[in-house]
């Protein structure tokens, strides 16, 4: 539980004693205490707190302050938990069901960090469907940790780039041309502002930029 204040667990349990045991507030605190083996449940309940702004009823103006001060979860961790839980809810709804929670083994339950990496991979344009399906299997079925998944992603992207060098060269060429056009536009603006060159030359500059842009594919 590296991202939760382990030294504050006793304080968390002490605070739990002052909260009604069957209440949602108590349930959130208990989920935080059991975070290592039940982050999905913590993510679910924190999502409810965030969505319904329940933390305001408990005296906190911001969700991040509530998570840090009452539950002992840092801002970055709390946001990752929300993102990872909502991603699972969309991509693997069975994993957020009570049945999964009761049967899941901690050893193969994906970590929230790994799920967050998978979430990022889902929108990575350098991965094809087969690559993404492989990464998804690594995370959701094999329970690989975030460090391993990131390494797998890097290798996949590298292999893909090596297998299609022509496409990569084209991308680099287009990037150079776009930088060139950007530089031309910046200089044109400066010239127009200063009035150094006559109008007919500036029109030629505008025409040149338009011709180059016409040759570029839509981004």
Description of the structure:
The chain is mainly alpha-helical and 219 residues long. It has three domains: 6-103, no CATH class; 112-163; 165-215. The chain contains eleven helices and no strands. It has helices at residues 9-17, 24-33, 39-51, 63-71, 75-91, 98-103, 112-121, 129-140, 146-163, 165-194, 199-215. Helix 3 packs across helix 5 and helix 7 (112-121) runs antiparallel to helix 8. The longest helix is centred in the last third of the chain and has 30 residues, at 165-194. 21% of the residues are buried. The model is unreliable at 1-7 (pLDDT under 50).
Tally of discrete structural domains: 3
Distance between the termini: 43 Å
Outline type: elongated
Helix content: 55-70%
Secondary-structure element order, as H and E? HHHHHHHHHHH
Beta content comes to under 5%
In brief:
With 219 residues, the protein is mainly α. The protein has eleven helices and no strands.
List keywords for this structure.
single chain; 219 residues; mainly alpha; 3 domains; 11 helices; 69% helix; disordered N terminus
List the topology elements.
Elements: H1 9-17, H2 24-33, H3 39-51, H4 63-71, H5 75-91, H6 98-103, H7 112-121, H8 129-140, H9 146-163, H10 165-194, H11 199-215
